[in-house]
Amino acid sequence: MYCDFWNLTQAPFNQRLDLEYFFESEIHEEALARLLYIADEQKKCGIFSGPAGTGKTLTLKVFEQLLKRTPHQSELIDLIGLGEEEFIWQVCASLRLGPSFETKLPQLWRQLTDYLNGLQLTQGRQILLLDHVDQARTECIPALERLLHVGNQQFPSLSLVLALDKMNLSQADTLSRISDLSIELDRFEQETTESYITSRLSWSGCQTDLFSAAAYQEIQSVSQGIPEKINQICDLALLAGFEQSLSTIDADVVNRVCHEIRGMPVSRNRISEAIQRV
Q1: Could you say which residues form the signal peptide (predicted)?
Q2: Is 26-184 assigned to CATH 3.40.50.620?
Q3: Per-residue pLDDT tens over the stretch 206-233
């Protein structure tokens, strides 16, 4: 909607999990290095944590692409809301073991056990990237431990990467016991936030700095360095700037946008009018 006004080739702050929008900060670079260490050194399990919105899912997708250049096989599975039977079915389906919708849990475990035993005999490597582990049902956590046991009896054939926002108390003992390495995505510092914003603008064809120094500081303060929140603020700020025909986005625009996000629109903020005209 505002791309022509700002001379952009595309909206720079959309929330799509698109690999071309991956920003490899020092934090993300370190996370990828640790993930590759798990794969290359045949570690059984890594806990990949960080506040919601820091980019864990997109980092897993990038890691999955990197693994395609290696002998390791990998699958990415989202565990939101899954119980043990649904989880094991998803694993079997991702590994192309041919489970039917009627296959019961004991048969699913048998299919998976046979596959992992065969993998150990051939000294193959399988890496499962499991997202939103903290939002799976509690019964999935013992299943993770069982998976690691089955997949590493004769040869270290199976590695798990468990991504979560925070470790629940009910999960803490088991996850701490099975983890070989902790990987954390932290919030951006001020300098990284500015670099992130300018990079996304540059990827969208922007040749000038659209945000003032004070605007950057306000974005950092409100977003607390969370990329997902930064995207939301910057997207609405560009919309507000378009509606008001501004040449740059200042701290006042950012502040008013943040009121909109919190559901507290102020009288000078006319973002809603711009949206209604679309």
Answers
A1: none
A2: no
A3: 988 999 999 999 999 999 999 999 999 9
pLDDT 10s digits, 87-105? 999 999 999 999 999 999 9
Look at the block and give the residue holding tokens 């950012």: 254
Question: Inter-axis angle of helices 251-261 and 227-243, to 10 degrees?
Answer: 110
Is the separation of the CB atoms in 9 and 203 below 8 Å?
no
Question: Nearest 5 degrees, angle CA 137-CA 165-CA 37?
Answer: 105
pTM equals: 0.89
> What are the structural domain ranges in the chain?
3-9+188-276, 26-184
Q: Which of 63, 71, 75 is nearest to 35 (CA)?
A: 63
Cβ atoms of 28 and 158 within 8 Å: the answer is: no
Q: Are 249 and 212 in contact (CB under 8 A)?
A: yes
Check: CB of residue 13 under 8 Å from CB of residue 200: yes
